[in-house]
């Protein structure tokens, strides 16, 4: 089986599983990269072919400017997975990636290519996203302080001035895309939605995560784990088990 995503710059396949019955497209958090999903790809293969999106402005795409908007990311990612591979596709996104995943799912449904299921993790539902923060306009120090509060980035990164300067453009660009995102009132999915969140997430109250279930006409489920915004770093097997169960594996 061949696929247009194999040669694309937008998709990484860390553990190709061409014989898998289902694909899982994974979207990273703000400042994150495709490699964040390397462990998930390893854990789910060979039952699931995991495709991890690589946003511009990081790792091997460091020289490219970050995307200006969620819409730009969605357009290019949907294009990247719209090749000749017709296996069912599920979508998983964490934090900012949850917003991108939601919009990808909407776009796929509009094109009569509905995803098998949407997994949204560590993010408030669009209907509750009302804080109005503008971290993308904040000073470098304030932006980094907000990111450190989430405990998802190795502390050594923040202690190395050269590394900080490398990650700041992508991080600021991602926050700009996220904070200027405006959901369209009335948009609803038809596909099933699984919501995952940590019970001590400082930016995603459980009630706001639960509100994702009102964004679909399909079945929905909320899975709450012990932990903060990056609860999945500490409970990778439990998250993988949820994905497996909802994909019928």
Textual characterization of the structure:
- This protein is α/β, with parallel strands linked by helices.
- It has helices at residues 38-44, 70-80, 96-110, 140-148, 155-158, 161-179, 206-210, 231-234, 236-246; strands spanning 11-12, 22-27, 48-53, 89-94, 118-121, 193-198, 220-225.
- A seven-stranded mixed β-sheet has the order 1-3-2-4-5-6-7, with helices on both faces.
- Helix 1 (38-44) links the parallel strand 2 and strand 3 (48-53).
- The relative contact order is 0.16.
- Mean pLDDT is 88; it is low at 1-7.
Provide keyphrases for this structure.
alpha/beta; 7-stranded mixed beta sheet; 9 helices; 14% strand; disordered N terminus
In short:
The protein has helices at 38-44, 70-80, 96-110, 140-148, 155-158, 161-179, 206-210, 231-234, 236-246; strands at residues 11-12, 22-27, 48-53, 89-94, 118-121, 193-198, 220-225.
Count, helices: 9
Q: How many beta-strand elements?
A: 7
Task: Calculate the mean pLDDT score and round it.
Answer: 88
Query: Radius of gyration from the CA trace?
Result: 17 Å
Strand content: 5-15%
The helix content, as a percent range, equals 25-40%
Alpha-carbon distance between the two ends: 21 Å
- Provide the succession of SSEs: EEHEHEHEHHHEHEHH
The coarse overall form would be globular
> Which sequence of strands runs across the widest sheet?
1-3-2-4-5-6-7
Main sheet: strands, sense, barrel = 7 strands, mixed
- Secondary-structure content class: alpha/beta
Question: Spans with pLDDT under 50 lasting ≥5 residues?
Answer: 1-7
């Amino acid at each position: 089986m061949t696929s247009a995503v194999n040669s694309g710059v937008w998709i990484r396949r860390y553990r190709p599983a061409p014989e898998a019955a289902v694909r899982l497209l994974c979207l990273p958090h703000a400042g994150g990269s495709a490699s964040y999903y390397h462990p998930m790809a390893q854990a789910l293969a060979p039952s699931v072919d995991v495709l991890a999106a690589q946003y511009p402005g990081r790792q091997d795409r460091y020289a490219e400017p970050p995307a200006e908007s969620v819409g730009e990311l969605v357009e290019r990612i949907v294009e990247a997975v719209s090749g000749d591979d017709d296996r069912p596709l599920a979508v998983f996104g964490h934090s900012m990636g949850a917003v991108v995943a939601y919009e990808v799912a909407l776009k796929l449904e509009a094109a009569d290519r509905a995803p098998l299921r949407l997994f949204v993790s560590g993010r408030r539902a669009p209907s509750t996203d009302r804080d109005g923060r503008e971290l993308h306009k904040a000073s470098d120090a304030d932006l980094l302080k907000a990111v450190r509060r989430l405990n998802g980035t190795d502390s050594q990164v923040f202690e190395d001035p050269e590394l900080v300067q490398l990650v700041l453009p992508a991080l600021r660009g991602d926050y700009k895309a996220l904070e200027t995102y405006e959901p369209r009132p009335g948009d609803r999915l038809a596909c099933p939605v699984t919501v995952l969140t940590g019970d001590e997430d400082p930016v995603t109250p459980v009630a706001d995560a639960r509100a994702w279930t009102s964004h679909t006409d399909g079945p929905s489920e909320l899975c709450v784990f012990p932990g903060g915004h990056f609860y999945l770093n500490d409970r990778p097997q439990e998250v993988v088990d949820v994905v497996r169960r909802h994909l019928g594996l």
